[in-house]
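Archive record:
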Amino acid sequence: MDGFTRFLASVASSTFNKPLPEYSGWDSVVPLTKRDLDNDTSLEKPYIFTTEQGELITFFDLQGVFQIVGKDHFAEMLNELCMSLRPLCNKYGIDFWISYEEDPDRAYDELARIVAPQIMASRRMGLKVEDIIRSRISKNASRCHFEQNFLVMKTGLLALAKETMKEEMGEKARKRKALKSNLIPKYGQDLDTIYESLRTLHITNVERVIDNFRLCDKSGTSGIMLRRLDVHEAARGVRIMLERERTSQNWVPKLITDGPTPRGRLKHIDDFIPTKLKWQICVSNPTIIEGTPYIDTGEFAHANMHMELAPQEIRQFSELLQNMDRTMPFRCTFHLSPRGLDSCKLRDFTTQLVGFFGQPKKVKQALDYLKDTDEHDPVMAMQFNVSTWARDTDTLKRRVSTLDSAIQGWGVCSMSGATGDPVAYWTATVPGFSKGNPSTVMTPPLREAAEMLPLARPASPFINGWLPMCTPDGKIIPLHSYSDLQDTWIRISSGTPGSGKSLKMNVTNFAFAVAPGYSSLPLMLMLDVGKSSFGTIYLIKDELPEHRKNEVMAIELENSREYCTNIFDTQLGLRQPLPHEREFINNFIKRLCAHRKTNEEGVSSLQIPQGVEGFVSQLIDMAYKATENPESQFQYEPGRDIKVDAALSEIRQTSKRDERWWETVTWWEVVDMLFDAGHPQLAASAQRFAVPEFTMLTSIAASEQLSNLYPELIVSETGESIQHYVIRHLRDVATTFPMFAGRTRFEISSETRILSVELGKVLATKKEHAGLFYMLARHLGTRSFFLDTETFMPHCPNRYKAHHEARILANRAEKKMIAADETHNFSDDPFTSNQFVVDGRQGRKLGLVIELVSQYLKDHHPLIREAATDVFVLRGGSASDEKILQEEFKVTPETIIRLRRECRGPGPNGANFLAFFKTQLGNVCHILNNTASATELWAFSTSQKDTFIRDELYKRFGTDVARSHLVKRFPSGSSASYQERIKERGLNQENQTVAGYLIEELSKEIREGA
């Protein structure tokens, strides 16, 4: 823009000493109509601001790209985006602002906001774990920053056809003329500034913009995520920019749609309605610091700059961020208006007169180029404003110098400070808020302007997540365990030893245990090999009061009678298994009957011969019919359970039945009597003897009835009949697998909420049957996981319905998790894998999360990989992981490059990992970082050396005091190296262990510190 025009613009918008609200025209909001709510059921609050000039404004959270994209890929996306936005950028009345802000000083507050629901939930549950949650945000706050990226769209009256605009303005004027003066708002919000035609156009444009950004990747791999903000979120964001010191995270404006707000003398309409939004947002007036162009808002001083000359070489915004000092706060705001060539009319007229010689000739050539470009790529009017702030002017000066240097190195451009009213330049950095912008107007084509915008930031799909992670460059990305944006919750992870796999699993499991909304511990089952999950178990158990410690349990499973669990057990009173229980039994027996077969390529896999599936299904039906039929039910045998015998003896004394009946009483009749007498626990114990069990299957399988059903089916590999094949596999169960060849002896308490089952001992001797042990452990810990009225009640006898309805009602609101580690143990087992897939597919209805962890993605069965909604890869460099990511999850080539380069295992700055999410918005894939605090490392530790020290100090001083001192003394999260030094120097006495010496040393320090 030439100097004279720029001077006029500056004067027009830069009257000094104006009240801050006078820089803005924000008035009210557009109320939602019934049609709006019918068309978009996600709407809850208004999302369109109005101005005193009748303009409509909507804010978007510009999250960034769905997936990691390379430079060429992103360029293709920009080409598509600009083409789709061209209709909006070719006419007057449509303005865009893109405002990117980073503030490392707000990182802790943002992290605290994210974890606040966890802290509230842990308090409700009686868990003293606040120090662990807060330690994580303290650790991460120093390497993260608060990040905010707004896209703002304004639709003005010039966007309407002239005839429509004239007609609506005339109608508005006639109506307003008929009103009494005291009914026309002066300081209150005015709904009469809303033009219906403009409202319709704006809503259409909002929907178009969201789709244009989301669908800008023709390959369908990525896109740019926009989230429309309601007026509460947007107004809060704007107010924090202007009134940082005086705005809480919970502030919301008072809207005219909220109802009347009577105050004052009640003689004017303004006494009944909320004040204009600009007056609610701007509650103080900034001052200019004497002798400087800096603005003082109380606690902060603000400095502003604008771009004087556009970059000689257009570069992406990511390159600007690489130049920036990310430890300082800043805000960059781009303002894009259509018809950019119109800002050059005076210059164009001048060059037409004298544009044949020297410098004017070059200007004419540039203008001619822009005119030609405008025919296929709209030339925009662009202004670029930057702001930074600090608590003192000396720091501010250094930040201004740093910021100026970084931007000038971004393609070689020229920056200038505020000339005229500094407040006008400052408010110009607040997107969509200011009436005018005195900054230099540049005229880039849309495609070149888009290249400079902050569009390629990694998108965060879960706005209400509660487990804070961050990207390697510091953007906070909260994770969610069971987001509504996902149809199911099946999470798979890969990580070789030393990749941080166990720590990450403990962190995510702990976050699930204290998820928002809980008032009691959730239902969790962790299947482990090596006790890595015991860290979470011990932590939660230690923090519970004594009378609740049985809610958390850890067991080491053994293949012995002591741990015998009958897979045929049913829910209390039910003679038949529920559908999901029957499916589990079917899978379990099929796995037991499977044999290993090698194909032509030499690949071995577990298979069952044709006909076995049907045979097993019939076998299960016949077993339950035998125990359900009154004529073949198991007879009661005294001495099997002395507590049942004692209760039954009391019932018998008051019974009206004769002795003959009692001599032939069955276990099912005993179950019913005990339940009716008010002994549900004893009824459940008695029911163990009423249901089928494994040892009876062989005789049923050998029955003539089953033989007649499959008379001619022969197993090709062995030449035997299907009946003999199944009998052979069932015959040796009692000797080979004593833990499931009999009546249930081992049962988890009904009060247990969180259970960890360690499978190391059973896998050490029977690794080839790993799938069976995983399935059995899953069955052991999930008896209450899969209850819902629709499938339960048809199988439930009437006398038990009230009892189970109460269970189901309590269960319906529960969130549940099954987490299994080292799943490569059943990687080629389709039966066990299918069981977890079936569980996961019921997850949405039952609130169930499935988490499966192994060393490589190929360890997860293809059935599980296909169903997975979350994928985490903790270390790059695996060719098999890369192949699966590209072929099955369709990640970009750039993703693989960054996975290899950045995900190398834990280091001083935590552990980077690849995170992939399937959501209803689209697939999201980025590199994230898990940085655990020393408190977390101590709390989750399973190292024998460290846990012995920790647990003894817990007993002596309590968990809070002990953890706090351990963190202070050993911030690395381990005392192992210090114990080695004690041993080398011989500091411990003759009859004292190294651990004993360290415990006494630490105990003395704690006492002296207290």
